[in-house]
Design goal:
The complex is a heterodimer of chains A (about 110) and B (about 160).
Chain A (H helix, E strand, L loop, with lengths): L2 E6 L2 E6 L3 E2 L4 H11 L6 E5 L5 E2 L1 H14 L4 E5 L3 H9 L8 E2 L2 H6 L5
Parallel strand pairs in A: 2-4, 3-5, 4-6, 6-7
Antiparallel strand pairs in A: 1-2
Helix pairs in contact in A: 1-2
Chain B lengths: L12 E7 L2 H13 L8 H22 L6 E8 L3 E8 L39 H8 L1 E8 L2 E9 L1
Antiparallel strand pairs in B: 1-2, 2-3, 3-5, 4-5
Helix pairs in contact in B: 1-2, 2-3
The chains are: A alpha/beta (about 110), B alpha+beta (about 160).
Amino acid sequence: MQLQTQTRPKLLSVLVMEDRIDAASAIQFKEKMRDLTQSGEPRVVLDLARVQFLDSSGLGAIVAVKKLLGPDRALELSSLTPTVEKVFRLTRMDSIFTIHPTHAAALSHVASA
Amino acid sequence: MSPAPDLAGAGTSHSFVLASDPLAVRTGLAKIAAAQPLSQLTADQRGTVEVVLAEVLNNVAKHAYAGGPGQISVSLRLLGAGLACQITDSGVAMPGNQLPAGGLPGRGADPASSYADHSLSDLPEGGFGWHLIRQLTEGLHYARVGGQNKLSFTIPL
């Protein structure tokens, strides 16, 4: 599970370098995200542009990362591909995340929290 | 729904056998996606089929075979209205010999439900699989036959 990070003031971007987050990689994804987010930025943007496929285990891992960050930090998503967007929509998990169309939009977005 | 006579091989059944673990499911899905009949579908349609099959196959690996070794057979047939699927395994039966209830975890079957009012710690991290399967399939049917689980459904395309 390759994750590429970029740090800006108060914002950590994580680009997932894999084409899928599935039952075979969900636990590893969650553990790597836990390590990468130790630095404490209040906003974490997860860029899913390269992720073509997400199953319920991968979805559960993303929700788990949101819970790990706690109520004072935000996990936002960007660049959902069609199948990934569908999984978020059908499970209503699109209602609990701020979802940006592109990573650039996420960067220019001023957090309302 | 009209038939699709222009699709080469429409109506022909294609069978695949996978080993029962998450990595074998991933590899098997890639193989299925590249082969007939999925190779005839659009990327979006293929994505939908992959989501359904991933949920079904990972459920079999996790529950029917309880993480142990086993074989899963997948049979796919492209019809005019969608993709007819049958998944067979020799693991333990579904509890009560029936399908789990649908609905979103912690939300029930209300189609208008969302998680916007949930507190962070109450958000579910699992239990989405059967909801996704039910949302994306029609004619979902489960039978325990001769020591095997047989799950059949159609994915409308």
